[in-house]
# Entry
Amino acid sequence: MTLNAVLDRIDADQPDALDRLFTLLRFESVSTDPAYDEQVRAAADWLVADLRGIGLDAERRETPGHPMVVAHGGTGGPHLLFYGHYDVQPVDPIGLWDRPPFDPVLRETPNGTAIAARGAADDKGQLMTFVEALRAWKAVNGELPSRITMLFEGEEESGSPSLVPFLRENAEELKADFALVCDTGMWDRETPSITTSLRGMAGAQVTIRAADRDLHSGFYGGAARNPIHVLARVLDGLHDADGRVTLPEFYDGVPEVPVEIRAQWETLGFDETAFLADVGLSEPAGEPGFTVLEQTWARPTAEVNGIWGGYAGAGFKTVLPAEAHAKVSFRLVGDQDPEAVVRSFEAHVRACLPPDCEASFIRKGGSPAMTMPVDAPEFGKAREALSAEWPRPAIFVGAGGSIPVVGHFQRVLGMNSVLIGFGQRDDAIHSPNEKYDLASFHKGARSWARVLAALTGRA
Amino acid sequence: MTLNAVLDRIDADQPDALDRLFTLLRFESVSTDPAYDEQVRAAADWLVADLRGIGLDAERRETPGHPMVVAHGGTGGPHLLFYGHYDVQPVDPIGLWDRPPFDPVLRETPNGTAIAARGAADDKGQLMTFVEALRAWKAVNGELPSRITMLFEGEEESGSPSLVPFLRENAEELKADFALVCDTGMWDRETPSITTSLRGMAGAQVTIRAADRDLHSGFYGGAARNPIHVLARVLDGLHDADGRVTLPEFYDGVPEVPVEIRAQWETLGFDETAFLADVGLSEPAGEPGFTVLEQTWARPTAEVNGIWGGYAGAGFKTVLPAEAHAKVSFRLVGDQDPEAVVRSFEAHVRACLPPDCEASFIRKGGSPAMTMPVDAPEFGKAREALSAEWPRPAIFVGAGGSIPVVGHFQRVLGMNSVLIGFGQRDDAIHSPNEKYDLASFHKGARSWARVLAALTGRA
# Structure
């Protein structure tokens, strides 16, 4: 049986597969910071070369920002588009890493061996599970299971500014029967999952300016406006005492969680206490009356992701700063409109401004929330394939994160996505000491081989 | 007449005096940041050598922090203690400086030639006015006008942690008939002033911690506590809508401004509009019902001098940070107790903490406000001497800044201080592009020669 041969091949090729992933992890492909532009580019070039090695017709494709990697191979239906991203989050605070974030190593953990590096789980390790599945398939069968297009993005962690124009300009080339996306997690180490709802995203960086220079708090304190105070008022005003967002019309388009979905989530046996205790917390901080799964999968949020202004060095400096800044982002659900949310935030800031203060904004690319049509046949096939690989049957879950590409595929290319990933809750993505389980990497590749076989009917 | 010869000598020695000041300004003696420890020490050593050159018995004296410079010379009464500080404020934001802060130059400004460098006005340029006056006196007369002790501190900009223990341990050596302090400003370019009241200072750095690591706002957002939100609530809660500080008992010990003092300040012709417009502002931000002079000289404040937490780099990072931080300081008046104010602030923070959050504090050394006994004879003599040097008569003024040493001299050594300085409002101390007017440096030295003559009766 072809599938078993492919799985055996994946097993046998693990040492080389790990070498390849380590090579990819060594590129410091931080997309948010222009200082790393060369490294982002080098990661793209390495992927092009690797895909060509499998016989795909791969290219680095330029955009106004970081390049895309696009590759084609195979013939016959269905036409599958696989998506992943090769850029990574910034590494700060660098002082909290146990070791250099771009020097991958295998590390023993209480839950088994893990691959430790920035990007190991988000998303380099994940995208390579699919590449390794294809490589094994090609090695065993001499050809790919069907027509396959690969799209690797280099701007996912910086708002994907080039993605929609790129999809529009190359719609004919990229439109497939459906998309496969590997940028999500498993329910737990035994239970694979397919993510069927995602929160959307909106955000903006705000700068509040008062005096035209930093002032001495002795000379001016008491008479001059302090923009940090104004910013504190702005940010404190975003939530009421119950943690509910106060922006007008913010909850327009936020649906009640349907009774049957709420019931299904209750069967998952999610341990709120353990989930919070894992990161040193004991009480849910969100709106009362919702479970933690609801708070993170089905409720919108407003979060300050960064704040700075004035003196932050050692000791004290009695300054009234000229400026104060914050980065604020919103997780969206249902039909919330990212554009309307950011406009409402900007209006809230302006309404808080006292005399002599002005505000300016840098908007973050937004995306609405998404819900997948789980009755389509590929969802059932994928679930069955995953269930064959792992100890427990696969489940459909929601997700609190945003994967804007899924919305863009639907709106620009009219294409649904099957979201399968092998991340674990303790992967520390976006945090110091990110890792990816070695089992996720290995069994992830095997899972994709099974899913490919199921979706193409080739096994 | 001896005084005239001393003044002539100061005039003739200006080029060399400026060279000496430039040498002192080149030391990067930032006391708040341990990275500059060597430079602080080097500045102290240079001062010791320079004072020995005038024939003073000068030494670097160790403390648990940065060293003091102590020098003695002259005989006969009155015994005068001169105080200045050779440490400087940090230079950030470094990007806003027109040129390197520790590479002094002469710069033409609309108000005449200025000495541009960090520390030019606060306080190296000021302390050297006194040193140059002494040097000229010694050159002309072969001896100093009376017994003189010099005390130069290296920790003024970092809360003077070693000062009180040093004064206690060396009380007999340092106690003089009264102190002369050069760390204040003139009322305007024509009007010298003696500062007779100073605001006190209290402060603390607060850190709020929630989760034990940075979290992904997609996974945890809505369920996990965001310490930046808690910090915003803490800081927003420090003031009511009128800008009044809300801490319980904060206004205990804050006096009404006496009618006669208020009347004297009104005669100063202070132009509030111009004062604010000079830094790009148009409306006083403080408590209604008080003039700007009252707000800055006679009212207490709570100011956030710095805030940071989460991601502050280019682009966006959707993180829920583990920690958020702020530096908060209070300007005090009347009988406000610095210790009680900081305790009250800490209690306010703790009262704002939701579950799973903890707060920690680093206290800043505090000092109560001070009022000088202006009826003592040395105040009248000094005012007369200053009036002879400048176009307009000298005046008594209040000050919004804190010069804790004045309080320590009074409480530890039982000694009053005469505060005379030659800074101008546009000196940008504690800010980028600090400068000191060349006229302040030159006429400041001449002023001290006149004050020494008047106080010692030697001219």
Chain B touches chain A through 99 residues (CB under 8 Å). Chain B is about 35% helix and 20% strand. Residues 106 and 115 of chain B are 5 Å apart (CA to CA).
